[in-house]
Amino acid sequence: MDSTTTIGDAITLLEREIEDRRRALSVLKAMVGLSPSQLPLTGTNKPANGSASRKAVTVGGAAVEILQAAGRPLHAMRELLPLIQERGIKVSKTTLPTALSRQKALKKVEAGVWTYVSKVTAD
Q: Which domain range does residue 72 map to?
């Protein structure tokens, strides 16, 4: 919050963030107990229902969806890698950082920690 932001503006921003986090939490709660094949991304050319209309899932695309649903930054190796692999996507510790860095919707916030950024801006 800078000196030009009013308390009312700050409250509005926090309320929006709370709502975004509640939506992300409800998505995650809905995933509890699902097998990897039932999750939104399966890592194959076929969706869980068996039809062939879905495109192959990329490591970066899966990372974007996971980080967006999580609503908070995740450590690439300790948290994100296992979640991507649970979706049936083959990825190694050496290729994950490159895949993450190529996603414009992701931002590295500290060493090994990535977050989803809803608005992509030019730096």
A: 33-116
Tell me, yes or no, whether 122 lies in a domain.
no
pLDDT digits (tens, 9 = 90+) for 19-35: 878 777 777 777 676 66
Supply angle C-alpha 15, 118, 97, rounded to 5: 130
Measure the CA–CA gap between 17 and 13, rounded to whole angstroms: 6
Q: What is the pLDDT of residues 82-106, one digit of tens each?
A: 999 888 888 888 999 999 999 999 9
Q: In what order do the strands lie in the sheet with 113-116?
A: 74-75, 113-116, 106-110
Domain total in the chain:
1
Neighbouring-strand partners of residue 102:
none
